[in-house]
Design goal:
Layout (H helix, E strand, L loop, with lengths): L1 H8 L3 H14 L1 H15 L7 H13 L6 H17 L1 H11 L5 H17 L4 H19 L11 H17 L6 H8 L14 H12 L1 H4 L7 H7 L6 H4 L3 H15 L13 H8 L13 H20 L5 E2 L6 E2 L50 E4 L2 E12 L7 E13 H4 L22 E3 L18 E8 L5 E10 L1 E6 L9 E6 L1 H6 L3 E3 L4 E3 L7 E8 L3 E9 H11 L1 E13 L9 E7 L7
Parallel strand pairs: 6-9
Antiparallel strand pairs: 1-2, 3-4, 4-5, 4-14, 5-8, 5-15, 7-8, 9-10, 11-12, 13-14, 15-16
Length: 601
């Protein structure tokens, strides 16, 4: 395999694909079995001979070039898991393949390396040992004054840059002020200058850009890629009407530079070559196989993205100059640290919200806000925790004809603003159209980047209005300084291997202030000493009960509130309805506010 690897490194890209990538395509059954065996063997690596494992891993690296999404992701997972236990391996391979013209391999190797660093960021032996030893080499690959192997690939640039950021954050690497500025802006010195497009490039893509219907079967760039994907590189309002044509021509130019032969010039020698070129799925194959042109399109897309990034023109910046936040391109496929969420399935809310259903016809109108107090505060083995978000739903059967639920959301309100005014807010029934909704969420952020990376938003102060009742019983809205206590973390994925991730986490404001950090393997939030800071529970009895409840450790919440002058406020929404009983049992939608730390009832 090492001999084969050496030969494969020397081949031109298109020839390589028809020798190696097609070889993988033709023997898809073999690779499925290979991965199944490797995952089994991976649990007992230490029992195997090291040279055998290294040979298998070299083969796995070359499977990163496949046009099968599942095989590529399985290879990534194998390398990520092995490298987490043997991090010196991935650092060595990143440097080795940095000088090899195999973009799919280098893109994934750098991402895996970053994933390993995120998984091991709380391991002081790793940070102060191997990581500290290797970081200069990683920096010099892309960002040194005379970089050793700079790439235009956006994913590789993003991964290498954030590995360096982590080293700076951990204090095991330093840079001069001017170098820090260049790094912050993702600037690098390319050895190969980006070449301008020609009239031929522009002419080739013009009909694809201007006509969706005529371009749906164009090669290699298809209509959806041109009309939806490429424009995301720059905001449409800023790009101007000619941007899509310019960008598409640049990406097409890059595709040709890689050696791709377009359909009008492609001459297959047999049906197998035709099937491989067009990504025809073999009978019995599960998962997605890309046509060869799509592989070249994605490589070129990320190369052009890297060029724009270096020019400061890529659509990844939010906010004003000097205070802007980096926002990773949403086209990045996988969450590189690949957390495995710890599922806490305990049923915490034991009250029967339907107990009074048979008592009277108008049972749906009974408020249940007070009952939620049963879960506002909980003692767990890690300490006392305070509720920051909850969803409690009950149904008598699988039908949705009868249902009740409580949605509990929490906010922090400035104490000196609300104290003395809370009595006009609590114990009042409000309509849902008076609710607070911050819609805070983080996307395109790796879980291991909480809360230190440049794509975590800066602290913001919100001015929101809360409904109050005046002396005449009419609703007014008064403005208060308000923060959300939690944020939804979301990584959306269509990979069968690297799944979509969702969960609530402490808000960036709280996380940054308290120096919270992530356990990137287990999808957990820790305090700065490494103890558990946040707990999420999910309980479901199919068709009857659903509970999703999130807690922040009380001492941490109290510290943040006390030192920043906040009090906790719950906004509780109730929706109860009975569409079977009949008259008098329409939908009940109500909402109340509570201030548990102002001693109100």
């Amino acid at each position: 395999m090492f001999f084969i690897s050496h030969q494969l490194k020397e081949l031109p890209q298109f020839q390589f694909d028809f020798i190696w990538t097609k070889f993988v395509f033709d023997r898809w059954i073999t690779w499925g079995e290979f991965f199944d065996e490797f995952f089994e063997d991976n649990d007992k690596i230490e029992e195997n001979k090291e040279e055998t494992i290294l040979l298998k891993l070299e083969l796995v690296i070359w499977l990163l070039e496949t046009t099968s999404r599942n095989f590529r992701d399985k290879a990534t997972l194998v390398l990520l898991d092995y490298s987490t236990q043997n991090p010196q391996f991935i650092f060595r391979k990143v440097v080795e393949y940095s000088s090899v013209s195999r973009p799919y391999i280098f893109e994934r190797l750098t991402a895996i390396c970053y994933g390993v660093c995120l998984r091991k960021q709380n391991d002081t032996d790793f940070i102060n040992g191997l990581f500290k030893e290797q970081i200069s080499s990683i920096y010099n690959l892309q960002f040194g004054n005379e970089p050793t192997a700079p790439t235009y690939n956006y994913i590789a640039i993003d991964s290498l840059k954030h590995i360096v950021d982590l080293a700076l954050y951990k204090g095991v690497f330093t840079l001069e002020e001017q170098e820090l500025i260049l790094l912050k802006n993702y600037n690098f010195n390319p050895v190969e200058q980006w070449q301008e497009t020609t009239e031929d490039h522009t002419n080739y893509v013009t009909s694809i850009v201007n006509s969706w219907h005529n371009s749906s079967k164009s090669d290699p760039l298809r209509g959806d890629f041109v009309h939806y994907t490429i424009p995301r590189l720059q905001e449409r309002g800023e790009a101007g009407p000619g941007y899509r044509l310019t960008a598409t021509a640049n990406i097409y130019k890059r595709i040709i530079e890689l050696g791709y032969i377009t359909e009008d010039k492609f001459e297959p020698i047999d049906k197998k070559e035709t099937d491989f070129y067009f990504g025809s799925k073999p009978y019995g194959f599960e998962g997605k196989i890309d046509r060869l042109g799509k592989k070249y399109s994605w490589i070129s897309f990320f190369d052009y993205a890297g060029h724009l990034l270096n020019q400061g023109l890529l659509n990844v910046w939010h906010g004003e100059e000097g205070e802007r936040t980096y926002n990773r391109l949403g086209d990045v496929e996988i969450e590189v640290s690949n957390p495995k969420p710890v599922i806490l399935g305990e049923k915490l809310f034991v009250f029967d919200m339907l107990y009074h259903k048979s008592v009277k016809e108008s049972w749906t109108k009974k408020p249940l806000y007070e009952e939620s107090k049963l879960i506002w505060n909980q003692d767990f083995k890690e300490g006392n925790f305070t509720l920051v978000k909850g969803y409690l739903e009950q149904r008598p059967n699988k039908s949705y004809d009868v249902r009740t639920f409580l949605l509990i959301e929490s906010f922090l309100v400035k104490k000196d603003e609300i104290q003395g005014n809370e009595q006009s807010i609590i114990n009042q029934e409000f309509d849902w159209n008076h609710d607070l909704h911050t819609n805070d969420h983080l996307s395109n952020v790796y879980f291991g980047e909480l809360y230190w990376a440049d794509n975590i938003p800066e602290v913001v102060i919100n001015q929101e209005t809360i409904p109050t009742l005046n002396a005449q019983g009419k609703i007014e809205r008064r403005v208060y300084t308000i923060e959300a206590t939690n944020t939804e973390f979301m990584w959306e994925s269509d990979s069968d291997i690297f799944k979509t991730l969702r969960g609530n986490i402490p808000s960036p404001n709280i996380g940054k202030y308290l120096k919270l950090k992530s356990d990137a393997e287990n999808f957990q939030i820790l305090d700065k000493k490494g103890s558990l800071a946040f707990k999420s529970f999910e309980f479901e009895k199919p068709d009857l009960i659903k509970q999703e409840i999130d807690y922040l450790r009380t001492d941490l919440l109290k510290k943040y509130m006390d030192e920043n002058g906040f009090v906790l406020m719950y906004q509780i929404k109730q929706h109860t309805y009975d569409r079977i009983t009949g008259k008098g049992n329409g939908d009940f939608r109500g909402m109340q506010f509570f201030f548990p730390h102002l001693n109100n009832k």
